[in-house]
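REQUEST FORM: STRUCTURE PREDICTION
Request ID: SP-0412
Submitted by: Lab K.M.
Chain count: 1
Length (residues): 676
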Amino acid sequence: MNVANHQEKVNFIWSIAELLRDDFKRSKYQDVALPLTVLRRLDCVLEKTKPEVLKKYEQYKDRLSDLSGILTKASGYSFYNTSPYDFRKLLDDPKNIGKNLLLYINSFSPNMLEIIDKFKFHNQIDALEESNLTYKVIERFSSLDLHPDKVSNLEMGYIFEELIRRYNEASNENPGEHFTPREIIRLMVNLLFVPDLDVLKRERIIKTVYDPACGSGGMLTEAKEWILKSINPSAQIELFGQEVNPETFAVCKSDMLIKGENADNIKFGSTLSNDQLLTMKFDYMLSNPPYGKEWKKDEDAVKKEAEKGYRGRFGAGLPRISDGQLLFLQTMIAKMQPADGGSRIAIVFNGSPLFTGDSGSGETEIRRWIIENDWLETIVALPDQLFYNTGIYTYIWILSDRKRPERQGKVQIINAVMFFEKMRKSLGDKRNYISDEQIETITKIYNEFRENKFCKIFDNSFFGYRKVTIERPLRLNFQASHERIERIKTQPAFINIAKSNKKDPSKQDIEEKQGLLFQELILRALQSVGDTLYKNMDAFSNILDNTFKDYGIIADIPLKKAIIQALSERDATADVVVDKKGNPEPDPELRDYENIPLDQGVYDYFEREVLPHVPDAWISTDKKYRDHKDGKIGKIGYEINVTRYFYEYKPLRPIEKIDRDIKKLEEEILEMLKNI
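STATUS: Completed
RESULT:
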């Protein structure tokens, strides 16, 4: 079989699902196809050197306990297979093909066998055998030539990622966790490396690249290809990553082994709770972490890490449990190396990390930490409908701990939402793509660092604000009317009068009866006050005290507060309620907040923007409304509202034109009705 390109190969592998239709659930198709694709790739890779490996194996198997060095040298790769079988030879014995397939798989070198085990393919072999499908499936795969001479490593990466995307989409899972469209990766790589062209061109330079949610390794592969092909073929680029999904981890690590990469640099497990590259620092980092995915499974470990403060990864704060995107970014920041030439980060987010969270929340504290440390360099707003599993707008963040002098203290915002082309055919939710020319244009806008229609540059402080609490005085009137007296009966302090904590039933009964009598006395006393409306709390309180004195009632403070509360109502014409020191009491229902830009004085802003509208307002100086770092009035927050920065006012159409359009539409409707 001669398949012209990787897309046709994907279609061919996808078509094998037809064989599985009656015996496997759709969600299980990839459990068969993905491991067999990996195995067939390995089969093709090892084909030329397999005879030499078998020769060395027979020669030394009884003489040496460790043959790995000899066999890897014979295979030409860091892995090998000592089985006499390959995909084509498996077909020679149809009756025993299942047993022989297991023998073939178990004959891989330990490093590759560890990867294959992540697919849990042994279970699927049993299912294939029960359905009499093993021979048919192996026969189809054996006709697929995946030799590196025919399918490059880059193309193979495309094949794996496209298969993962299709299978997850077919089973209604989230393909976005594993697959980032290639044009987005190319744009991220451009923005990551373009400022460092002079550095990357140096002879035999060594650089590290890391992805904390590496999926099948597409970002890492694209980053290395970009440097070696576009900049410096002599550069030594070492790739590192971690992936939590076992299937995509297996695809990534096997692909790294085939490419001759150090596959031990690809780790398995959750980066958030079990960072297996914890102490390492990297030159370049890029990632597309899952959007809006809760980190409940990692919660205990993450919170324990956060307790370390800035000695750990999450000292700046924790985002809400429903979205862990900013945890991945904090992990990447923790791996920057300012003392050794610095690091650069490219990460793609949805809109949530830009503005979610009020001042003092985990999200805004993380943004504050990033911006106040001057790490945030650029944010690029991307078009919608770029991803396969969601049509939302996304944003590339570029961070660096070695900004160029002109970028220091600044953040560049690029509005690239109109830089896209329509796809001829939609792929899931993906209806748009960014062309190579548009990638170059966006990169140029970024690199020029000059304001224009698509680019704004702001000081770091522009994104910060102080959330100041504005209080207004409490104004109440008071009346011992029948309706308000009835409210007292629902007050806990009043209800508790007729309750007893005595364990002795007889004593309890006596105490409760006394309580009921006391309640009745209070109600009679209040009824004697009359229904006069009072607009001053002190005046009404004196009336209440005198009445209770006449009736011999001694009310403790909680009870008196409950009574006054029940007999009061808000009244804008009433006198202000004051405390013992004569200060006005704030009205919680009138409490408001102002987000005051950091570059403006709090009291100047208050006098200019608030007092003209509410002259009786004041700024709360309560400690709970102060910033936890500088102790000043107002909690500091940071948010980035990209849409607002590029808003263009469009005047409404004239009323006359709207009126003409309505009349024309009415005439068309009437004409249609005549023809019915």
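NOTES: The chain has three domains: 6-151, 170-466, 476-570.
Reviewed by: T.R.
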